[in-house]
Amino acid sequence: MMNPPGNPLGQPMRARMSKILLWPLVLALASCAVPERAPHATGTPEIQNPEIQNPKAQAPNGPPGPRVRSVTGTTPTAPDGNSFSFLAGGHLYGNPGALSAVPAATLLAQVHALRNSPDKFLVSSGDFIRAFMPAMVAPTGELLRFIEKPMFNAPGNHDYVAGDYEKAFGPSFGSFEYGSVLFVLLNSERQPWHFEQQQLDMVKATADWALQQPHIDHVFYFAHKVVFAVDEPRYASLLQNCNGRDGFNGTSNFAAEVLPTLRRVAKDKRVLWFCGDIGVSWSFNLFYDEHPEHNITYLGCGLGATESDCMLRVAVTGKTLKIEPVPMHVGATIKNGLRINKPVGHYGPAFWDQLFAKRGRAKLPKIPTGK
Known about the structure:
Helix content: 25-40%
Strand content: 15-25%
Radius of gyration: 20 Å
CATH class: Alpha Beta
CATH topology: Purple Acid Phosphatase, chain A, domain 2
Number of domains: 1
Structural class: alpha/beta
Largest sheet: 6 strands, mixed
Number of helices: 11
């Protein structure tokens, strides 16, 4: 088959018709009536994969604490030497104003490109489904199986239900090692905008472990909420214009109890912190900043079914990182949004300040002319 025109992930097409046969099931489930917002629906979707239902502890020589599993139950293939890439993004369900049981239209338009991309796996920073219920989980699960890449998830307010999430997908926080990177996925929903002692202990233990491993060059952290922006004036526009501040009481323990550990790691390793609760129409889809004092790179990426929709491709080659946005709007019937067409570093605090100052001015009432 030929590549679809304008494929931003640009790999040869090799779709298999046996997988296409899954789509009647997806479409049938997607037609089910769903509530507008039901992040705490009762009942657990039936997951048949025994590996997910019975997560094992970390290997004795691996990082301490829980080992997160991919939501598909699959594991990534081995990296090619010291090089690999993965895709990161949040809020994959897309537009909160659309009653859809499948992910964002921009993601659906790229399923073939995602399937055939060189990336080893995906990491979601939460909200990969709109609500934790069978009518949402099943179609998204079939889509992920078609893509044939493992996807790990740091849960958000839409896809996390305490107890039910763990029963379906395994630990809601933990880590895994891949190549020269330690991945640490956190749950910012158990105590919204805070991390309870169990997670704080895990962050410290994995940091101690990473600092003792000469083969680990990078530590990547993932959490849904923009917790790092709470006590940082540099990120005021991000905090004010993220997707939502559900459960926010004005405080977070990130700066006091997480950041010191991250800065200790950053003295010896490259540290990235990803968030995912951005991207809807009243927010923006991409954030990137190399903090001048923390020696930490803060990133955010999320889908909202706009022309700004993108994911981040992180390419790792030993100690070298290359981070670039991958636009997702091509092929989707999306007309609103500012297209991502500049290097990732362009979309930092100054960009957010200017964008939302401009939006604020546009909403001001016009001054009467007197004529």
